[in-house]
Amino acid sequence: MRVFVTGASGFVGSAIVKELLGAGHKVLGLVRSDKGAEQLASTGAEVYRGDVNDLEFIQQGAASCDAVIHTAFNHDFSQFKANCEADRKVIEALGEALVGTDKPLVITSGVGLLNYGRLATEDDVPPAASDVIPRVASEEAAATVAAKGVKVYTVRLPPSVHGEGDHGFVPMIINMAREKGESVYIAGGDNHWPAVHRSDAAVLYRLIVEKQPELHVFHAVAEECITFREIAEAIGEGLHLPVVSKTGDEAAAHFGWFLHFASMNCPSSSEKTRAALNWQPKATGLIDDIGAAGYC
Question: Is the confidence at residue 63, as pLDDT, over 90?
């Protein structure tokens, strides 16, 4: 297959490109920078240089391939709602390019939307619409695309997609700990974060485009429910800093805008994902990776 991958030089996207190429597929990768283009070209993938928000341009890329994997997303949290609405437009545009074909479109969402405090499954839906939870816009767009007959799949990533080169939530927590001289969890720290290594997540994306199963929502979850306290303790050990519980204003002062994410309690099952695709995560777990992958 020839697969169009957006965000092809990103943390998750680059792992997907590597996985697809290793399995014998061809990749047309969307990148926007010189550095990204150089990095992608070195893998043997074809470079498609441009901006993901140039909708006509990405439609041309999608139409020229046998499958589409969309991982690009602007993680500037100061413009979070605008970025989520931009993602809606991108997904709808990609879908429009595939109407009338049997080509699969795989989009990316997050299990953090299912912040129920109980084990969430692939059958669960976000508790509110995008006017309340902006990130839901991506799943709403997937539903719009599916209604037009497009074969669309949603991969929900966990709060931690880890591995060497990670610049996501765990490195943010590490930087806060380093700057403030202590590694912090909230109250008892028993809120749960699922996790997956990016190489295992990449295998899941590949399996979806290859097998195109009946299931349409997948949880890229290797570890269902790591406690936030375990994460804080691993960071404290790595940085040789005290590990401290905080609540209320003290927790808010430490985490700032990140308080919502540090409080998330979204344990998530991937039982149906594993069964549908025989997906078997094999890489290092998050806690071991914090100690081994240069995080601290």
Answer: yes
Average pLDDT over residues 165-176: 93
Average pLDDT, the chain: 96
What sign results for the dihedral spanned by CA atoms 28, 275, 285, 24?
negative
% pLDDT > 90, the chain: 94
In whole angstroms, give the CA distance from residue 260 to residue 30: 31
pLDDT band at 293 (very low <50, low <70, confident <90, very high): low
Kind and range of the H or E run holding 6: strand 2-6
Given strand 160-162, what is the order of strands in its sheet? 160-162, 192-197, 223-227
DSSP 38-62: HHHHTTTPEEEES-TT-HHHHHHHH
The band of 76, judged by pLDDT with boundaries at 50, 70 and 90, is confident
Contact in structure between 52 and 30 (CB atoms under 8 Å): yes
| Of the candidate ranges 35-44, 145-154, 247-256, 284-293, the one whose mean pLDDT is the lowest | 284-293
Let me know: does 20 contact 3? Beta carbons within 8 Å. yes
**Three-state DSSP class for residue 137:** helix
Neighbours of 83 (CB within 10 A): 18
Strand 217-219 versus strand 151-157 pairing type? parallel
3-state helix, strand, coil in the chain (%, to 5): 45, 20, 35
- Please report, for residues 118, 135, 176, 250, the alpha-carbon distance to residue 111 in angstroms, rounded to integers and kept in the order given: 12, 11, 24, 27
pLDDT of the residue at 273 = 98
Question: What one-character-per-residue DSSP string does 231-291 give?
Answer: HHHHHHHHHT--EEEE-HHHHHHHHGGGHHHHT----B--HHHHHHHT----SPPHHHHHH
- Other Cβ atoms within 10 Å of 99 Cβ, number: 11
Work out the angle between the directed axes of helices 55-63 and 80-98 (0-180°, nearest 10): 40
> Given this model, what pLDDT does residue 167 score?
87
